[in-house]
Q: What sequence folds into this?
């Protein structure tokens, strides 16, 4: 599971320029410290539009169940994904290091610690993956349409897609999905996003996320 940097546009200065355009001023008219204070003020007081002008493009390679959670972040993002209507090479699958137990109490989502029968579950899962892979490959080999053969593939199959979004959108994604209540796997993706974006917009990212 990984997030890869593709490209970006703008800088911390872009945020300042967007905020000050109403006064027909630019970041170059102010000191580094003044610009940093402005960025912190904007973030603290919820002035998010200046943070929508910088844009970042990443490529995610993640299991489908992670992708579908990430896709829920709609505002400020656009995506293009690999399609198994056109691609029929051997799929790859995500296998967790450990299978987790249900959370205690009445909580309906999330997970607890390692399940006491994690090894048994892992073996059953791997057997099922082998069976689905064999079924898929057999369908492809006898000429079944890839758009139908893909129906046997599980949510643990890796998919890959480009995602382009504003700095504000990525910060919102990070803040929500790095939270301890988010699923562990998407927390891991969020931390990779943090590692990529923080050096690109150090002042803005810190102001928006506390990192």
A:
């Amino acid at each position: 599971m990984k997030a890869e940097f593709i490209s970006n546009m703008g800088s911390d200065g872009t945020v300042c320029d967007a905020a000050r355009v109403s006064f027909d001023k630019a970041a170059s008219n102010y000191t580094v410290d003044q610009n940093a204070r402005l960025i912190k003020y904007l973030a603290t007081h919820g002035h998010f539009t200046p943070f929508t002008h910088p844009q970042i493009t990443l490529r995610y390679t993640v299991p489908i169940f992670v992708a579908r959670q990430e896709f829920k972040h709609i505002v400020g993002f656009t995506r293009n994904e690999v399609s198994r209507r056109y691609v029929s090479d051997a799929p790859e699958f995500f296998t967790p290091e450990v299978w987790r137990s249900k959370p205690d109490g009445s909580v309906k989502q999330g997970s607890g610690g390692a399940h006491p029968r994690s090894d048994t579950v892992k073996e059953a899962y791997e057997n099922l993956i082998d069976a689905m892979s064999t079924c898929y490959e057999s369908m492809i080999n006898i000429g079944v349409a890839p758009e139908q053969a893909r129906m046997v593939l599980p949510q643990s199959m890796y998919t890959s897609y480009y995602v382009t979004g504003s700095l504000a959108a990525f910060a919102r994604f990070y803040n929500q999905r790095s939270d301890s209540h988010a699923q562990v796997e998407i927390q891991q993706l969020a931390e990779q996003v943090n590692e990529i974006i923080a050096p690109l917009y150090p002042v803005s990212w810190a102001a928006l996320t506390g990192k």
